[in-house]
Structure formats: structure tokens, C-alpha cells
Amino acid sequence: MKLIKILFVIFIITNIANAQSNDKVDINFRNLAIGDFVQMISKITKKNILIDTDISGKVNFVSSKPVKKSDLIPLANSILLNKGLTLIDQGNYLKVVKISQAAGEGVAVGSSKNSNGMMKTVVFRLKNSNAEDVSSKIKPLLHQDAQVIAFKDNNVLSVTALPQSLKSVQKYINALEVTTVKKPTFVKLKNTRVRDVFDNIVQISKDMFPENIPSQTVEVLKDENENRLILIGNNANKNALIPYIKQFDIRSESSSKQMYVIPLENSDVLEMEKILNPLLSQMNATDNIPVSSTGATVTTSDTKKTMVVSDIERNSLIVLATPEQISNIRATIYAIDRPRVQVYVKARIVEINNNVAKQLGLRYGFEGGKITSNALFSAASNMGASSLMV
Predict the structure, then answer these.
(1) pLDDT tens digit string along 186-234?
(2) How many Cα atoms are found within 13 Å in the side-chain-facing hemisphere of 124?
(3) Closest residue by Cα to residue 84 from 30, 36, 141, 144
(4) Strand partners, 154
(5) What is the DSSP-derived secondary structure letter of residue 301?
(6) φ, ψ for residue 31 (rounded to 5)?
(7) Which residues contact 69 (CB under 8 A, 6 or more apart)?
(8) What is the dihedral of CA 160, 164, 167, 168, to 10 degrees?
């Protein structure tokens, strides 16, 4: 044992002398205690190393050529990693800690490219990838004690790991961040109109995929002529959105036409029918759903024309429409079927002659004028005096 220590001291002195003259050192050792190995690294690199945990075990290293001094710290970390330990930079000195506790010991934050061979935290700002998705995918690349945190709000990924692992993560993220060409996907609707579901699909797309990550968003467009939706985005997200579109494109009772009887209270049923027919014709023109690639329309039981028929005897309208359409039709009829403004005129025809005129004069104090072919032309009140009539 004493002989080994003497040889080790001679080895250290020799290599320190060599290290002062060049950047490479010759190191070869067998069954060297890890604690002694750390001391050797401290002497050669001229860095203070604090060991506040138990280090046990032996280490062997055989080198066929000199080793760069800059490679000694990574070498020390590789050896310590097998013992569940690692070196972290504390500024004026290095510290040997358990790797499971390294993240909480204030590891340095920096770039994965500029590394001094020790564990550090690197922040990756993602532009085209989802931080949460990447977080789950890179964990197999890391040591079990490495830490990965995904920040959803600003799409940032924080990784605390050894330099070798960080370089692998950097390459993986660079590959994911390559922007791919987005191809459109056409989803044709068979049982509903594209304008009726468009707003809902757009909202679902926004809820499913974060808008702050361009590569994850799915843009939704509508083609009313072909009654189809156009999805633009990556294939995985488009395929995830299509089942929701299919749920909206289901034939339901609410889309089938039914008979409705609407009695009128103030309007003539024939006049109301004349008003509604042009409106219903326009409604029928926009209700046709194209079902072929050429844009031709096919009239089925679900696309029968909306129509209105008059029931004169009951002054009612019989309407064939969908529940959605009938609400608009009822509102229109209600707005028109209002009571009309009327002027009440009351007239009375009275036949009068001379005797009646005199009787009126005697009874009411009036003296009537003469009756001619031009009718009664004067009347006077004598108020008890002599007649003033001329």
C-alpha cells in the first residue's frame, strides 16, 4: 500500500512538471482509489475540488497516448458517474456531489456547445416543435437523474444533464426544428353544410393545437362550392382533427324536413304565400349540397325543396322545412302578420223637411231656414226673440 502511494506521488509530480510545459499529460494507473484520482485531477488542472461525500472504489485507466488537460474533467465525470457522482462548477472551485442532487446545487446555465465537461442546465427555445412533446421524446437520451422541464406558455425546454447528453439533445431538437412543407388535406362533408360547422371546427383546432407554435397549428379553410373543409398543417395534427369533423358530419333528425302549420291572424293567406315563395326559392338555391367532384348536385330525400302551401279555409300556411329553417320562416311571418292601422268612420243619413225643421226650431229654440233643392241652407237661433231669418 505504501509503495502504491509513493508511486502515485512520483506520478503526480512527473505529470505536473510535464503539464507545465504542454497541454497534454501521460496518465496510466491501475486500482487507483477514486479519491486519489480526484486529487490528481485537481493537481493537474489546478482547480480546487471539494469532496463532501463518501467516495469509495478503485479505478483503472490505460492510455496509449497523452491526454489533453481539457479532457480530464470530462474523464473525471465519466468515472464519478459510475459511482452516482458528478462534478459541478461552484465558481472558485469544483464540487463532487451526488448526481441526483446536482440540479439543486446550482449547476451552471449555458450552451450545450460551450461545455467544460460538467453537468449544466441548457434552455432550448423551440420555434417549430412542441416543448411538451419534445420533453417526453428526449428522456431516453438522458441519464435517469437528468431533469427536463417544459414551459408551455413560452414553448421553452430546460434540460439539466451531462455535456454528452446535452449534445445529443441539441442534435435531436435541431432535426425536429426543420420546417417541413405543409400540404393541404380536403375533407368533404356529405350530411351537413360546410358553413354550418366551419366556426366550430376552427375553434376546436385552436383548442387542440397551440397557436404560438407554427408547426403545430392546423389552419382550417372552407370551400362552399365543393362543400368541403381544407386543413393545412402537419399530418399528425390533421389526422387528429378529422374525427371531430366526422362527428359533425352525421345525418340527424334535425336536418330532415317536416310539415308545419302556421295560422295567420291578420293577413290573407294567399298574399302571405306570394311574399314567401320568392324567399323560399332563394333558400332552396343555397341549400343544394354538391356531392360529385364536378360540383353537380343530387336531390335526395334530405334535400327536398322547402315549400309553402295555402289553406284558404283556415287561413293557414302549411310549410315543409327543417327545424332550423322554420324558425326563420316563423320570424318572418310574425313580422309581417301584424294588425293594420284602421280609421273608424261612422255616418248617419237624416231626411228632413219643413215641418221637421219647424219642430226642431220650436223644440230647441232654433228656427230653421228654407228647404230647397240644395238642401237646408240656413239655421238661426232666436234665443226667444223675433226671427232673424231673411
Answers:
(1) 999 988 888 889 999 999 999 888 777 777 889 999 998 888 999 998 8
(2) 31
(3) 144
(4) none
(5) G
(6) 50, 40
(7) 19, 23, 24, 25, 44, 45
(8) -100
